Amino acid sequence: MKPSAKTIQSRTPKAFKPRRSMHALESRIVFDGAAATALADPSLQAEPVDHSAPAAVDLAVPAPAPAQPRSEVVFIESNLPDWQSLAAGVSPAAQVVVLDAQKDGLQQMADYLADHSGVDAVHVLTHGWVGDLWLGTTYLSKDTLADHADALKAIGRSLKAGGDILVYSCNAGAGEQGAAFVSALSAITGADVAASTDRTGRNGDWDLEISTGAIETAGVLSRTAMDGYDYSLATFTVTSNADSGVGTLRNQIAAASTGDTITFNAGMTISLSSGQLGINKSLTIDGDLNNDGTADVILDANYNSRVLSVTSGTVNLDGLVIKRGLVYGNGANAIQGTGNPGVSALGGGLLIGTGATVTIMNSTITQNAAAGGGASGAGGGGTWLGGGGGGGYSGKGGGTGGSSYYSGTANFTPASAGGAGVGSSGSTHGYGSWNTYVGGGGSTSAGTGGVLSGINLAGNGGAGGMASGATSTIGGGGGSAGYTYLSAPGVAYNGGAGGAAAGGVYVASGAKLYMASTTVSNNIAAGGGGGGARLDTDSRVNSGGIAGAGGSAAGGILVKGSLYYNATDTFSSNDGVGGSGGTGKTNGVAGTGSPDVGNFGATLIVSTWSPVPTTAVSGASLSADTGTSGSDFITNTAAQTINGTLSANLVAGESVQVSYDDGGTWANATTFQVGFNTWSATTTLSGSSTFRARVTNVYGSSAAYTHTYALDTTAPTAPAALSLAAASDSGALNNDRITNITTPVITGSAEANATVTLYDTDGTTVLGNATANGAGSWSLTSAALGAGTHTLTAKPPPRPRRRSRPSPPIPAPRATASPATTPSSSPAAPKPTAPSPSPVPAPGCWAPSPPTAPATGPTTTPALPSSAAATPSPPPPPTPPAMSAPPRPTSQSPSIPPPRPRRRSRPSPPIPAPRATASPATTPSSS
User: Fold this and answer.
1) pLDDT tens across 703-753, in order?
2) In whole angstroms, how far apart are CA 899 and each of 19, 41, 44, 905?
3) Would you say 845 and 739 are in contact if contact means Cβ atoms under 8 Å apart?
4) Which residues partner with 709 through β-bridges?
5) Which residues have CB under 8 Å from 592's CB, separation 6+?
6) I need a labelling partner for 757 at 20 to 30 A (CA). Which of 33, 120, 331, 630 fits?
7) What are phi and psi of 222, to 5 degrees?
């Protein structure tokens, strides 16, 4: 079916309720967002006696059955940044399944739907780009759909006829390629499919602009979740190993926006032929396709250029081999006065510019080369001399020599360009006698420094360095000589410094490099030679210039900014040889040579990684916490996902670990990511213990977050009766439940540490809350009571630790000649209470009581201010008092269980109290 361009706008259901639980499905996580099922299960509820007249028979045609609620499933990739906020924003009417990003996500979907068939719609939130998307480790495009036909058809069969698949992924349906993908996905699944033709998430929207068939499904994300999501669902997939063009890495870097991710549809080697890959925005390039810590993608410059240059942004590189990059510096041009420095050659494999931050993991940087250019010497009179160009490598490259000036021609003469692996020497004006004065070009050997034969008032240039690699050598350009001729007396000039070189990586001032599980090996660098100094020709002046220093070199990493690395990194067989300094001759000062440096620049800032992480776990919560507070780690659900936060974003080399046995054993959390401050761990709890979570690296761990937890699946025991505290009982007896205290103290027992809410006769008026101690005892001072009889009930609060049906009340008798008896109600477990009135001794008194059977003989009745002896009359049939019967079950009635109880038990029916009879008043009963 040809896709249509009708936009399916994201719409939010009118009301959202937070889901109470989240369930694990093997490596998948299921959020149970379905609304609670109907509360009325007749087999589990009390059956109150109905005293009303029989209803008239209704012969009308029955109304149509109500429409069945829609069944929708939302699949979310666990490697989406902050996927938790998306899951929390899904409508409670939908199920949410979080896919394990390290496994086949398409098969996870098919497996889940095999057990949950008959759904109306499937929503997919994942990374993707034009005409493709990722589901865990599975890459889907029009060309790969047929490879996954079995799983896709199984998903289609799980949908109802006319079911929908809604794909939330950046640009999945954009252009001809995207439209073809949507059409093919619809054809193979048999579903109506909708997808986006633009960005989804940050800097985009949540609308699906292209679809096939009739889409009958609205969006399931709340407006708050959509507006608050600060990330993009874009992942660019490299499908070609060519240097440039559609589907190439170069093309995807150019198309990506800040914060996007680039990955590859398969392992590959990308050979660069048109120059380095430049990055000037925050990106992630992921070449560890199966997340096994091994690089699956090779970036090979073949000594045609540098491999990677990052000039700004925060860039994460994972699973890459960066190899055979080459950079070389040109020789310095001549100048009158102090000589110019040679051009540096920095970062054959990777250059990190000022202000940029790069994290590189599970990667290798190898066989890269660099050669700095030679400096020019001090120029005097009418002769100025250029430095030699840095050498190339493996028959490629080579820097251009510096231009020179000679008064006889009155102009600058440029040197020839370097090439074929050889840097050219500085230009010589065609005068053979000048050939030895200019700096020599580097090649597989070092460029020679310029030498002034027979002239003692000017210095010679220094030679470039020469570094040895696995298969060849490379030389830096030589510095040119200084020159003195027809100058004013008393003036001295310095020579220029040789160009620096960094073979593997260069970290500029103000830049940062984080490394973990990365190897830097067999990289080479050679510095350029320094220029010679110049003296005045006047022999009366005993002073001279300073010759230029040789260029520094580091085979592995040259660091001007900050480097953070740890014991998981390896540095080996890197060779860096600095250039030699120029000379000062008679009165001048010789330039210093640079030391040979293999792994790091010797005089540069190198900071090792902090031995112990400073980032710590700052919080955690159960996905299905059924305890009193909702955050007490008490639950009756074994399958859990623990979601947590960190005090700061993780950096390379750090991971989150969890323990469920008070630190006895540790394992990595299920999901965490460098650059983010959230994590999650799926588990199946058993029993009770202490949960711990920490951030760790190879040096140690942060202080652990700690919280006790309990899996409690045992039904609560029946509560014991309530009591009026002796000090609050003001009746004739200290246990007759008569009081003239308007705020009496009520006591009772419940399960240890349970929270209890005390309700008045109507079952809804809250009189107070209390928490049982470790022995299960509790007490509270009631809210003010009015005059009359009160039947009290103790129940759990609205969010109970373990849900069960409230216990039945003990009804009080109607007013009789007997004094009022003591109240009865129940503690912690939620049991329904049927209110029953009893005599009121005096205004402000509280006197509910249990039923008392008629006395069998005469008794003496204490006088009460508000009651008199009953007049004998024929005894009617015993019936419950009018207010004693429990109310009919409703969603608000205390006689039914709270929503979605774990196990429902039938409540005991109330014990009816006899009506007043001709017998004498009964004696008070005590509890």
Assistant:
1) 899 999 998 877 665 556 788 888 888 877 777 788 888 899 999 888 777
2) 12, 12, 13, 14
3) yes
4) 689
5) 549, 550, 581
6) 33
7) -70, 155
